Amino acid sequence: MQPKVTIIIPFYNDPYVEQAITSALNQTFPNIEIIVVDDGSTRHTDKIQSYTNRILYLGKANGGTATALNCGIRAASGEYIAWLSSDDIFYPHKLAIQIPYMLERRASICYTSFDYINDHGQVIEHNVGPHIPNMKSFYQSMLAGNPINGCTVVARKDLLLQTGLFNEALPFAHDYDLWLRLITSRIDFHYLNQPLIQYRRHEQMGTVKHRTVIEQETRIIQSRYAHLLRVLYQELGGENEL
Q: Where's the Glycosyltransferase 2-like domain (predicted)?
């Protein structure tokens, strides 16, 4: 029997949410649960109404994406968690490819490449991803910034709970913080070099609107984990250039 996967869609005033939910419902993987966490939206909630008999809808006061994700993870009945932003799209075969890949390797967390799409859903860049050749390069990339697209990630729920979930004090770089917590706890990240999601670029996306705050949070996170990453890097024979 296939393991159960919970797809969590944090939602806040997003006009694209219908496309995200539809892409989750269209998964060819047979054993899924879809949780939409409404983080205090005041607009576009009507777009969810026609789906309420096929999803678990959770409403909460506005607290940011990390709080919405944590709410969904705690409520999830799946063994595995997949995060889907409400403006992005899963390809129908995402979980049907990624879950067997993880099971074969006994991976507790896995990320993939992705395609960029525009406001109109047209692919504007194909197979975008870090394409990191080895672990030393991976540690270098992780200290320089966040090369992992959170919506490509599938992780075991028990791993996320053990690690303490997303840091709700970080409104925007909570994913970067969690990845570094996992890495410095010696959890292996597995990379599948295949685009399994469409990541939407648009004027209202958080990475555009909140760039300055994201950069500030990133520097704080880097200073917190730099020493531990350097230890891992040096264990692989790397010098102090990290």
A: 6-140
Q: Which token pair is 31? A: 């054993």
> What's the CATH number where 61 sits?
3.90.550.10
* CA distance linking residue 130 with residue 132, whole number of Å: 5
Please name which of 138, 75, 144, 77 lies closest in space to residue 111, comparing C-alpha atoms.
Answer: 138
Residue 242 lies in a domain: no
Per DSSP, the three-state class of 232 is: helix
Does the residue 74 lie in any domain? yes
Domain count, the chain: 1
Q: Which tens digit of pLDDT belongs to each residue from 50-97?
A: 999 999 999 999 999 999 999 999 999 999 999 999 999 999 999 999
Burial 104-125 (b: 16+ CB within 10 A, else e): eeebbbbbbbbbbbeeeeeeee
Q: Which residues pair with 192 in a beta bridge?
A: 112
